[in-house]
Amino acid sequence: MLLAVAGGLATDTAFPNRSWWPMAYVGVALLVLALRRDSVPWAWLTGLAWGLGFFLPHLYWADEAVGEPIGWIALSVAEAALVGVFAAAWVLVRRVPLLERRTWLQPLAVAVLWVAVEQLRARWPFGGFPWGNLAFSQTDAPLVRLASIGSTVLVSGAVVVIGAVLAGALVRLRHLQVGAASALLLVVAALVFAPWLVPLGTRAEAGTLRVGAVQGNVPQQGAEAGSQARAVTENHAAGTAALLERVEPGGLDLVLWPESAADIDPRTDAGVAAVVQGAARTVGAPILLGTQRYVDAPGGQGPRTRYNELILWEPDGPTDLVYTKQHPVPFGEYMPHRDFFRQFTSAVDLITVDMAAGTEMSLMPVPVERLGRDVPIAVGICFEVAYDELIRESVVAGGELIVIPTNNASFGMTQESTQQLAMSRFRAVEHGRAVVQVSTVGVSGIVSPNGVFQDTTGLFTAEQMVEALPLRTTLTVSDRLGQWPALLTGLLAAAAVVAGVMTSSRRARDARRRASVRRRPGGGGRGAGRPTAPVSRGGSRAGARTGSSARGARTGSPARGGRSRR
């Protein structure tokens, strides 16, 4: 248990803000070592302990956002329980004779099971929660280059393989098998640094887009910042005017504002519309900005609904170009089963109006006058950056640039914003696209297609970024493969678990049979000529090696006859 908790804590340090990426391998190695006991229930508890050691510090920002620890603890326990599922599955699967005989396959089997559970976490329950995928810890490591080949499936899998091989090296060191341990450590080094050989494209293939990103900040830190929506919009308008210190009017193709930069919808509020319109005219460029749209129930019967949207506002007025967030955050933007969860905490009513999901692809064709065409931009609002399929489908559909508008004001000075920026950086490498993450309060950043930061901002500051970004059309191997790596991994994991269950059932039947034989009376009867004692876990009996039988036991000499020796 202590090994497991230590492994979880170590793994968290691989993520921002520390970003000690080798610790992900150490954390996995400690978990593998902690799972050496051959007990499925104990394995689940051990995996739960590792998960709590990891998720409680990793998701601490959830406590900051809610203001009560119950949400943070419940989320951490739910995610940790799924790590327990992985651990229990591994103990089952390693009983399969193929893995018992060929131990070199075991790191691959561990990786398949881990990735399958990560993919399950990303989809279930309530649409999933991919936060904490091991792949997102590797944005400073050579392994991130594998994202262009196999997305989070391949990168997380590589982390686990390295961790499992490292665990084997530690076991051999403990037994003073220096030669074998050294060989395994060389394998670890090769697996870690070989991805440097994977090429990454960065050149512009369809021109460049001159972009300004505005982080306007909020008047006051904390969740209550939403009540100061007009001031937030004015801050972003002021930040847009500040761009003119770096460019001439009309020198930008597009200005990016974050999610919730205009929480009061400028399409329905004349005052906010005037602020946005003035900013667009001042800078001489269209503004892509986040807002909220509220819809009343038909006939006024029933609760209101809101939509989290990204809209384009030209210098001469609003356009019809809109993207509606497809993946609202459960318990953060809408409350599932509100009446049920109210029995445990009144915090469910902090969400007064539930957010509904959009249905259109996250691709926005933005007209760019200088280029004389529409530039398709793949977008993902806030937490949507964590979901593989959502960003991938818009890139495959033609997205030449990725934009992630977000609002991190509710998370205070925690590591949430830097964890999110690491995901944006991962997406840049995965899809070979420049990425802009722009936040109300930070941390914002512009990332080149090979994952290198071109510019970043601080947290709770008012800053601006200006860059000419390459527009790219080439699809990576990861984009072309789509969901096939995840599907294949899931099928392999399911087949392995079924094989593990069958092996365990067979061994249990053999054990019951041997126990029954041992309890059988030694003298006479129909069972007198049959073997009486087991000699190995594989189910062979003493009679198979000695030829002894009930009659032989009485006479003190080996029994004779084909039946007793069978």
Automatic annotation (TrEMBL):
Keywords: Acyltransferase, Cell membrane, Membrane, Transferase, Transmembrane, Transmembrane helix. Pathway: Protein modification; lipoprotein biosynthesis (N-acyl transfer). It is a multi-pass membrane protein. Its EC number is 2.3.1.269. Its main location: membrane. Gene3D superfamilies: Carbon-nitrogen hydrolase (3.60.110.10). Residues 214-477 form the CN hydrolase domain. The chain crosses the membrane at residues 20-35, 42-60, 72-93, 105-126, 146-171, 178-198, 484-504. Catalyzes the phospholipid dependent N-acylation of the N-terminal cysteine of apolipoprotein, the last step in lipoprotein maturation. Belongs to the CN hydrolase family. Apolipoprotein N-acyltransferase subfamily. This is Apolipoprotein N-acyltransferase. It comes from Georgenia daeguensis. The lineage of its organism: Bacteria, Bacillati, Actinomycetota, Actinomycetes, Micrococcales. The gene is lnt_3.
